[in-house]
Amino acid sequence: MPLTRTTAVGLVGGGAMGAGIAQVALAAGHRVYLHDQRDAALQHAARAIRSGLEKWRDKGKLTAEEATAAENRLHLTSELAELAACGLVMEAIVEDLTQKQALLQALTPHLTDTCIVASNTSSLSIAALASACRHPERFLGIHFFNPAPLMPLVEVVPAVQTQPGLADEVRSLMQAWNKVPVLAKDTPGFIVNRVARPFYGEALRLLEEGIADVPTIDWAMTELGGFRMGPFALMDFIGHDVNYRVTASVFEAFFYDPRYKPSFTQKRLFEAGYWGRKAGRGFYDYATDATPPEP
Ligand code: NAI
């Protein structure tokens, strides 16, 4: 079945990315089934999606009728079985190969044989994820950037198993969603996350060597370097749970190439639960500090 506006879209994982992608798919006219294993996450996602659609309405990107209709097309579900209605299912759960493979295996019996399945992974092997599916030929990476409603770029990543033509079909769908798709090969971190690793890694090394502190490095990179966000504000925004896992996964996937070596400073933040903006604390303390800008 070709991917059209009438295709119901399933999202598994209603965190920052799942909710953001759901908002984009709803605004593009799809019915969306959003699943999370935690009810609190579903409720939080529904609030974020509603507020995002209202913002688009206020900015004139959607009419009031379109925004209400989009909101009404959202179905929250705690049952994977409800994703049977979907022609495209994307997962955006924790960045962990074992957990993602277990989810893909659990999903399989509920999906139709024609359903396209995708991962929003930032760094993991698409081939290894595809191997957990009954139809690896209908699996690929569709990697959005954070925040998904704002960031135009989407990396479309076919695995070695992906059937010819599927990546092009998904690229057309992303264009219909007003995104700018780029085809990337199935290598660790794809394009952006691979290039971004040294950006974070070198900033962490500067900090660990005592060359400058966090606000100074962020200030220099935004004011002088022309970056929209400094590396530490950006890591806090992404979340250290996500960013540390991505670094560790890219390091391992490149056979422990020292260029991608993770930092103990970030590992400790990850272990402490100081996951950045979403935890209220990371490199910055969001309760007390003047908070760095959002993208
Ligand atoms: P998050 O931590 O905000 O959300 C993950 C959600 O998945 C949580 O609500 C959690 O309850 C749910 N979940 C975990 N295991 C589950 C399971 N087995 N079944 C159902 N729900 C489950 O994470 P975030 O930031 O949304 O990232 C999700 C994925 O997107 C990761 O693969 C990450 O690498 C990728 N990504 C993250 C970006 C970022 O900047 N945060 C950017 C682009 C991709």
UniProtKB/TrEMBL annotation:
Official protein name in the record: 3-hydroxybutyryl-CoA dehydrogenase
Keywords attached to this entry: Oxidoreductase
Residue span(s) of domain 3-hydroxyacyl-CoA dehydrogenase NAD binding: 9-187
A single GO molecular function term of this UniProt record: 3-hydroxybutyryl-CoA dehydrogenase activity
GO biological process: fatty acid beta-oxidation
Keyword Transferase part of the UniProt annotation: no
Occurrences of domain 3-hydroxyacyl-CoA dehydrogenase C-terminal (ranges): 189-286
